[in-house]
Amino acid sequence: MKKTLLLFILLFGWWITPLLCAQTNFLIYSTKSLGEPNSSQVLEAYLKDLKEALQEEGFLLEKKSLYEKEAKAFLKTGIYEGIAEIKCFLIGNNVSLEWKLLLPGEKRQYFNVVGEVGNLEHLISQTIIYLKSIFEKKELIEEIRLIGNMRIKEDLLYPNIATKPGDILDYKKLNTDLRNLYKMGYFENIEIKLEKGIKGVIVIFEFKENPSLKEMVFKGNKQIKTEDLLKIIDFKEGQVLTSKDLDKVIETVKAYYEQLGYSGTEVNLNLEKVSQAQVKLIVEVKEGKKKYIKKIDFVGNKAIAEKELKGFLSVSEKSVFSPIKKATQYLRTLTTPEPLAEPGVYNLAFLYRDLGKIESFYKNRGFIDVKVGEPIIKEEEDGVVIKIPIEEGEQYKVGKVEIKQDLFPEDKIYQKLKTLPGKVFSLENLKQDESILTHLFADYGYAYTKVTTDFDKDPKAKVINISFKVDKGPVVYVNRIEIEGNTKTRDKVIRRQVAIAEGWPYSEKRIEESEVRIRRLGFFEDIKIEKEKAAKEEEVNLKVKVKEMLTGSFGIGGGYSSYDKFMLMLDVTERNFLGKGQRLNVSARLGTKSSRYSINFYDPYFRDTRYSLGWSLYNYEIEYDDFTKDSKGASLKIGYNLTSKLSAYVGYRLDYTQLEDLSSNVAKIILESKDIKFTSAFQFGVSYDSRNRYFMPTKGWYHGLDFEVAEKWLGGDSNYIKIEGEHQVYVPFYKFTFHAALGYGYLTEGGARKIPVYERFFLGGINSVRGYKYGDISPRDPDTDDKIGGTRKLYTQLEFIFPLIKHINLNGVVFYDMGNVWDKNTEFQFSDLRKSVGVGLRWLSPFGPLRLEWGYNIDKKPREDSSNFNFSIGGNF
Question: pTM to 2 decimals?
Fold first, then answer.
């Protein structure tokens, strides 16, 4: 019995062992190495790694040096299922391995794999694919072809096809590819076809695309214009329509009607063929009806009045004032792209959106447990009644405030926080304090500071104890500063405005200052400085991302006066000349009685130093009632940037002026000026500019003080000292900007001083008192009544600037100006100040800044205009 059992076990083991250890044996009987001297080493390494890889795939590879007849003899005995000869060609870094494989029945197979010496893994993986396809009698994919995709490009299709040339044909994988292609939504039908190739099989994907859009029409839309519906869908002719696109049309149209208050709108789509590949999309709309709100009630509110809560709602009760509110709202839509609910109309979407605003308002008033419930909607015959339940809970104040940190004295931090003991708790203030702490530590190099806040609510005392935990991390240094987006502006122009340098500790304050300084250049629409982690934990890279704007402008301005009639002003300016940050301006003013030409150049960083250089040339000819003035001159200024905001300059001006065609009855000052031809003047001054933008700033200061000394020892005929100052401030509040400007001037006179009339002060026009044209505000000669200018001037401008259409940079302005000019014979009195009020538009247009302003003369005198209108394109304001 035992012998029989033992025999059975042996026979069973002999039978089952080949099944458990089933593998493919083949022999490499011949190898040849050609090309580079080290080709044999490459081949040996290849075969060694190939043998190990094949074992995992169920292959047993042997290598022996035999003659072909000997190898064939082994093949016939069945010991091996294949014998192979390999040739290795090595040229440079490229290797080619040619296989000649002989199978039972004298069947021959040839293949070769090509790659680089440094990537043997690729060569081995390709070899295994070929061997498996041969021994397992599977097809090898020779090529992938795409047919019928007329509008959908191949680069969109291939990422959805996992099957690649060189793979073994896998029908399961092809089915997955088919599903992925259908998911794209662009195809009505896809077929996979297989064709025999030279080395394997060719897989063909044959597509039938969905039809493209020829036209889209709307039917049934009576309340909303077709043009408005086309804008929100934004389909283009020739676009391939997918099922997702069609679903989106239905959702978008319904949502748009819902937004406008039309409840219950139904949308259906029909496709009508207009050709073999194009369709007409018909959108059938069954418009809902507007429902009006009869009453809105808040239930449960005690601490906050119902009137205040209604102010957070976009929807409102219908009243006799609803049509007026609607008209006002229409004007508001010109200034903001935010959608607004129609006054009095029931709109559930807006109602739900506003519930979050009410909850946030309560939490900012200390009611942290507030719950704004689901609105109770009741539709009655004469309107909709809405009840909004509110559970206010208790109001909490701030208890203890603890800041866990080890860098600053506590009193220094508490001075900056808004969340302080005893104050009403505000979630908004808390978030701001987290940001304040993050910025505070970031200013000292801790770029990755994290602030976490813990709450400890005490219901009995009705206080919330707050703990700020600051994880400042390591001190971070700036590794690299990279600049992106500047195609015209040179890197150095931007880099010199960056207030932080590579190798410096990271500083949030310096980065914010850098953004302001770059924006103040006036070369860019948008500026953003982003930080990115560097290779080392203690380093950070900064990316200065800019979006350039047009810096060259062709400006045209004009004005009309009873004296000069229409005056045309041409101005060609390049504020970023050659991308170096230099300013070049060529201007001309042409009128019936005057012509003015000038060319000006300014380099704020001459030869990449802190010095600045500016020069100008001009030629003016002006015909007045009593004389003609012909001036030619030039000036040169050299400045020095003491800081990024403070600078000083010295300069020299030479002017040659002739007064001609003087009338017989002309003022004495004008007559005396005829003999003063040369003005040779030394100039110097200082300026401070912290404004946040070059055009239309919203905050900051400007101060300028200029001195000019003309003396005979400088080689001129004029003899005077002139002092002029200008001060401006911009203060933002809410969405408005308040701007105030103060200007003044002082000019010496008397004794041996010689001051030509054209160097005296005159006011009026767009840069002083806008209800008057330039020169209208001036002392007059008592005998001839000629305007002779003054030796003292003072003016102020007060403005409120507000956005009209924010996304196109259109602003409105309301202003009040006053000022006057005096001489030594006139005492200063506030009652003498000339005043004007007015309105205007300012637009940062693609062609440069546009300014249109109309001023009304409040205290008009005889022979004065009651108002004045000026406009200009180009220039700084």
Answer: 0.59
